[in-house]
What does this fold into?
Amino acid sequence: RVTLVSADGREIAYRDVEPGDIFGELGGIDGIARSASVVALEATRAARLSGTAFRDIVMTHPTFAWMLLEHLSAQLRRMTERVFEYSTLVVRKRLIVELLHRAEKAALVDGEVSISPAPTHSELAATMSTHREAVSREMSDLAKRGLIEKRGSRLLLHDVSALRALVDKKE
It folds into this structure.
């Protein structure tokens, strides 16, 4: 997970690095160090390239260079979506959007989306740029409505269509 911690200790999670992904590419391109941290959430194997080696690979391997452009394009699109969400959606809707993003990668079990392991409220807050308490309040409300349920180490989304409708509903 790529994170940044503010001066007052608030953590913001930018993205989760998936198997096969690259990170740190901006420093490899422009040589400027970032203050973001990368934290392994499970057993991980990683390789490191010097800036010079990275630039050499980009310059001599067009396929890699194109893959890098696609990767950067996807990251920019995701960041643009997040800025839009943070600017226009209340916490409840941002939470639902985040759960729906996670649902895209999750398993379908008995007709329900099963996110495993269930994200903690702190993790969700860091990803959504809000406070844990706000996430806890909204998760509790969604559970009371029967839309989500924490079951063991999983988070079940009982009605994805209803969750999408809540995001689209005018307030």
